[in-house]
């Protein structure tokens, strides 16, 4: 979006859920008009949501799509479930590491095992904070660049940063190791859990930086 020195930066999504609905509506409007270049009233819309989203949030999102954008139909689905379908599976455990949270979602025959879903504060933004402090970067953008490349890099501003043990520590600073979180989720499934225990899918930011874990 065009920059404006008098504008205020608002993050409409916090920990995977919309929290500023007016700003979220503006993001959707910009996406329809300037990114997709489509008229929303001519298209069905699929929205994704984080696991264990409150029903009120889901209803609000659908209300905006139907009343503000006049979409003929809107469907909301869990991110992890769509990722599993995209991989050609209907059962498995999905590990989705995003910018503000990580979710572990066991799915059996297309149905999430709700009682075993875990959302934890292990995510990109926390790792940026850790690397920025551990490497004395003082720059969140540089921390993100280092985090994404996970090696010795020459950052975009010309600064050379060498990362050693920090690459393994940043993913563990804020939470227990990821494999323990996954096992906690899987073992919380009902007794017959073969389909979720033997098939795992990584998605989100971890696809690029999974080596940290």
UniProtKB/TrEMBL annotation:
Query: So what family is this one in?
Result: Belongs to the actin family.
Q: Name one Pfam family in it.
A: Actin
Question: Which lineage do the record's taxonomy fields give for this organism?
Answer: Eukaryota, Metazoa, Ecdysozoa, Arthropoda, Hexapoda
Alphabetical list of InterPro entries matching this protein:
Actin, ATPase_NBD
Please report the name of this protein according to its UniProt entry.
Actin
Q: Which organism is it from?
A: Anopheles christyi
């Amino acid at each position: 979006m065009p920059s404006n020195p008098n504008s205020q930066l608002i993050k409409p999504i916090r920990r995977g859920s919309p929290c500023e609905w007016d700003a979220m509506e503006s993001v959707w409007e910009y996406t329809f008009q300037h990114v997709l270049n489509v008229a929303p009233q001519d298209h069905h819309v699929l929205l994704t949501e984080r696991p264990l989203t409150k029903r009120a949030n889901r209803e609000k999102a659908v209300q905006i799509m139907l009343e503000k954008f006049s979409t003929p139909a809107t469907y909301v689905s869990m991110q992890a479930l769509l990722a599993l379908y995209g991989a050609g599976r209907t059962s498995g455990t999905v590990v989705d590491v995003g910018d503000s949270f990580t979710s572990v979602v066991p799915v059996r025959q297309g149905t999430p095992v709700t009682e075993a879903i875990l959302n934890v504060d292990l995510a990109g933004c926390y790792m940026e904070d850790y690397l920025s402090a551990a490497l004395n970067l003082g720059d969140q953008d540089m921390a993100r660049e280092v985090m994404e490349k996970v090696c010795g890099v020459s950052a975009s501003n010309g600064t050379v940063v060498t990362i050693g043990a920090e690459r393994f520590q940043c993913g563990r600073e804020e939470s227990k190791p990821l494999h323990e979180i996954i096992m906690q989720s899987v073992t919380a499934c009902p007794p017959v859990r073969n389909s979720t225990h033997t098939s795992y899918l990584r998605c989100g930011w971890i696809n690029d930086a999974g080596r940290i874990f």
